[in-house]
Design brief:
- The protein is α/β, with parallel strands linked by helices.
- Helices cover 41% and strands 16% of the residues.
């Protein structure tokens, strides 16, 4: 938990202050004994950076590099002070290296005990593919390094190059030397020859029996790629940033090998089911300035059957509360414009004066406000309560802790609105067999059984594609029919739909993986 709070704080700051470039987290072993290890972590960014004077004062409480950053970026710098204390609790130290307009590097160490369980190496699972030659093509040195380390840990023989031209120059000589590359991991957007063109040339210049499998590894959207080139040149597709397990399983599928199943997860973090019906339909206001945290919390709340509205700072929350009554408010603490503590004081003052901010019918005299914050030090909870909040839960959000707070503060009353059922059967029943051509059961399965998410996808699909048939027909009848094909490719890639009727055109065996993915 401590390590998670430290990394979330450092990575959150790095993302916040980095407008272009990259943010990289790395870790290695500083020292190791029989029963313990000291790890060295590094968070590097290409952001705005700091002067030496600003860096020297950064770990002091309530200090930022510049007072103007509070209004622009949010926060007070207290998170770094907390991180420094947590690192000290873990027997480590933190240091900073920074340069204005070039970025910052935070380094820290922490001590951990060693498990007596030995993790099975993926190299054993690679089977006949062990030692296979793999070519990584990416213009980003960071991406090349990450993929190389992942692949080497899987017992593959890895070579990296930084361009499509360099890839072509490596592949043919390797074939002539009878040491061919059997797999190419190809980035899409690169200077000069991009990944689409490089893959096309590999396909054109090499005999079918000698062609390597090609997997695109890119941060670009799949819809964009469909409109740029021939997807049949690729055998698989992986989105950046990827993980070792996703990379490994994709490679195994491409070569027709058995895929490693993920380990069974513990019950920690699973959403309780008992008590959800008593809260279903309750309206919650989520006040959070971080996009990712807002999305994660919204998904959790909607899975419980709650109706969720959001605000990105305290000032907006006050305006929303004047117009709408809520059963509960989840309030972040550190936000730009107006923080959570100040907003809570305004809410309580308005309630005390009979103002516009009022709770929903059937709730207590005051709307319950629960702090949802990364502040986890001694005294932080007391500050939240002193400002008028009713409870305090920490981030990263534990679904059980969130559920417990909701169950404690949302009054179970009969509500008219129900945002959606929480079982697969009820969703299927509510939608019947679904619109013509859409397989509801299969679509839900492809959304991992997340009914709320699937409903949201269907709504978005409907809103954005009401005229898609006419647009495709017009494009196909125009002088540029390729634009219609691009629309069809985009339509196939949407996760909200799953066709009832299987495709009549069956792909070649080596292309089946890609077809399944595009159909999803």
């Amino acid at each position: 938990m401590r390590l998670g709070q430290i990394l979330i704080n450092l990575l959150g700051n790095a993302v916040k202050f980095t407008h272009a470039g990259e943010v990289v987290l790395s870790v290695d072993v500083a020292q190791q004994a029989a029963d313990a290890a000291t790890l060295r972590f590094e968070v590097r960014d290409t952001g705005i950076g700091m002067t030496p004077e600003q860096a020297d004062a950064l770990f002091e409480p309530f200090t930022q590099a510049d007072s103007s950053t509070t209004r622009k970026y949010g926060g007070t710098g207290l998170g770094l002070t907390i991180s420094k204390r947590l690192i000290a609790f873990m027997g480590g130290e933190i240091e900073l290296e920074s340069e204005v307009n070039k970025g910052s590097i935070f380094r820290f160490t922490a001590c951990f005990g060693l498990s007596d369980k030995i993790r099975e190496a993926r190299a054993h699972a690679a089977g006949d593919l062990k030692g296979m030659r793999v070519l990584v093509v990416d213009d980003s040195s960071t991406s090349r390094e990450i993929l190389r380390e992942y692949l080497r840990s899987m017992a593959f023989d890895v070579t990296t190059v930084d361009s499509g031209e360099a890839a072509l120059a490596m592949i043919e000589p390797a074939l002539a030397d009878r040491r061919p590359y059997r797999l190419v991991l190809m980035d899409w957007k690169m200077p000069g020859m991009d990944g689409l063109e490089a893959a096309r040339r590999i396909k054109q210049t090499m005999p079918p029996s000698e062609r390597p499998a090609i997997i695109m590894v890119t941060a670009g959207r799949r819809e964009e790629i469909f409109g740029q080139g021939d997807i049949e040149d690729f055998d698989g597709f992986i989105m950046k940033p990827t993980s070792p397990s996703v990379l490994f399983n994709t490679i195994m599928r491409v070569f027709g090998q058995a895929v490693c199943q993920p380990p069974v997860r513990s019950s920690r973090g699973r959403m309780p089911s008992a008590g959800i019906d008593l809260m279903r339909g309750a309206r919650v206001l989520l006040v959070e300035d971080n996009d990712i945290n807002r999305q994660v919390a919204t998904e959790m709340l909607e899975q419980m059957g709650l109706m969720v509205d959001t605000a990105i700072n305290g000032k907006i929350a006050l305006e929303v509360l004047k117009a709408q009554r809520y059963d509960l408010v989840l309030m972040d603490i550190q936000m730009p414009v107006m923080d959570g503590l100040e907003a809570t004081r305004h809410i309580r003052a308005s309630e005390g004066q009979g103002g516009d901010v009022a709770p929903a019918t059937g709730t207590p005299p005051t709307v319950p406000i629960v702090a949802m914050t990364a502040h986890a030090m001694h005294g932080d909870r007391e500050k939240s309560l002193a400002a008028g909040m009713d409870d305090h839960i920490t981030k990263p959000i534990d679904p059980k802790a969130l559920f417990a707070a909701l169950q404690k503060w949302i009054v179970p009353v009969k509500r008219g609105a129900d945002p959606g059922p929480s079982s697969l059967g009820s969703v299927s029943a509510g939608l019947g067999d679904g619109p013509a051509g859409i397989d509801i059961t299969d679509g839900l399965a492809r959304a991992s059984g997340n009914e709320a998410l699937y409903r949201k996808l269907l709504r978005t699909f409907y809103q954005e594609n009401q005229s898609i048939a006419d647009r495709i027909a017009a494009a196909l009848a125009s002088a540029v029919p390729a634009s219609g094909l691009r629309l069809l490719h985009t339509l196939k890639a949407l996760p909200a739909i799953s066709a009832r009727r299987p495709y009549t055109r069956r792909p070649e065996p080596s292309k089946r993986l890609w077809t399944r993915q595009t159909r999803w």
